[in-house]
Each structure stands twice: as C-alpha cells, then as structure tokens.
C-alpha cells in the first residue's frame, strides 16, 4: 500500500503491546480507533535495542512529559515480539507502549515496508479525528525527527 497522505484517514489497527510501569511489564491490545479524541504519535522503528532505534526512542522518552502535556500518546511499533519489546523497554527505561507488528500488516498498511530491515524508520502524527496530520518517512534508517519537531507539530495541531 501507499504511504497515507497528510489529510487522509489513518489506517486503523489493533496490535498487542507492552508497557513498563514501575518496573512491571503490562501487556495489552492497543487500537488506534480507541484513541479518537487525542493526538497519537506512531514511531515505527526497525529493531529493538539497535543503536539508532535506542537513540530515537530514548529521545522521545526524554520528552515524553511534553507530549503528554499536549494530550498526545506515543506508541513505538516494530516487527519484534512482546518479549523483545519488554527487554528493550526495561533496558532503555522506556515508559510508553511498544507494539508488536510481527506479521507486518500495519507496516504494509502504512506503506513503509523496507527490504532487509522490514520497516522504514517513520513517524506519523495522527490527529484527534483519526487523520494523518504530519509524517516523517525515512529513506534510510539512520535519521529520525527530533522530539522537539514532533512536539511543535502536536502543539500546532491542538492549538
């Protein structure tokens, strides 16, 4: 499928995910449609605990309070399973949900599949109305948008 355009409805999905709270792992199902009414940041990344993915997600963790203050939620999505996500979250002190797209369905629906790594490093900002409002789709896997850039786009959306 093609990458959703800005202004297009975001492809809906439900994926299993895990989040660390007070050092404890909590698994659940996460549905994009269940977040209508609040902005959602979808951070697609190739692999748990790789150097660039760790830098990216830790930078978002460092600014998580600023995202939460805007009413936004942040989800990391990659092809690895929940056990891998839990280890990554625990080892990197990540406190937002990491979702497991082990079959690559959501990655395909967002048009960001990539040979060898499985997914192009990409960030989508979904508006409270379920529409894609901003996106950054990497051509190569080493660049990602700064948390401050994402935060500015959220703030403009909710202003």
Q: What can you see in these coordinates?
A:
The protein is an alpha+beta fold and 159 residues long. It contains five helices and nine strands, in the order βββααβαβαββββα. The strands form two sheets. It has a seven-stranded mixed beta sheet with strand order 2-1-5-4-3-8-9. It has a two-stranded antiparallel sheet with strand order 6-7. A hairpin with a 3-residue loop joins β6 and β7. The relative contact order is 0.24.
Instruction: Write out the strand line-up for the largest beta sheet, numbering strands in chain order.
Output: 2-1-5-4-3-8-9
Question: What best-fitting shape do the alpha-carbon axes yield?
Answer: globular
SS elements, strand count: 9
Return Rg in Å.
Answer: 14 Å
Determine the structural class based on helices, strands and strand pairing.
Answer: alpha+beta
| Element-level helix/strand string | EEEHHEHEHEEEEH
Low-confidence stretches: none
């Amino acid at each position: 499928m093609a990458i959703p355009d800005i202004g297009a409805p975001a492809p809906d999905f439900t994926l299993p995910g895990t989040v660390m709270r007070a050092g404890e792992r909590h698994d659940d199902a996460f549905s994009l449609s269940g977040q209508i009414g609040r902005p959602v940041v979808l951070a697609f990344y190739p692999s748990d605990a790789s150097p660039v993915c760790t830098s990216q997600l830790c930078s978002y963790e460092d600014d998580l309070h600023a995202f939460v203050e805007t009413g936004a939620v942040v989800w990391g999505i990659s092809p690895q399973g929940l056990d891998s996500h839990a280890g990554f979250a625990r080892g990197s002190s990540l406190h937002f949900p990491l979702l497991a797209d082990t079959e690559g369905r959501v990655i395909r629906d967002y048009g960001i599949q990539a040979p060898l790594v499985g997914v192009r490093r990409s960030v989508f900002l979904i508006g409270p109305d379920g529409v894609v409002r901003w996106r950054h789709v990497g051509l190569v896997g080493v660049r990602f948008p700064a948390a401050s850039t994402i935060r500015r786009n959220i703030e403009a959306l909710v202003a």
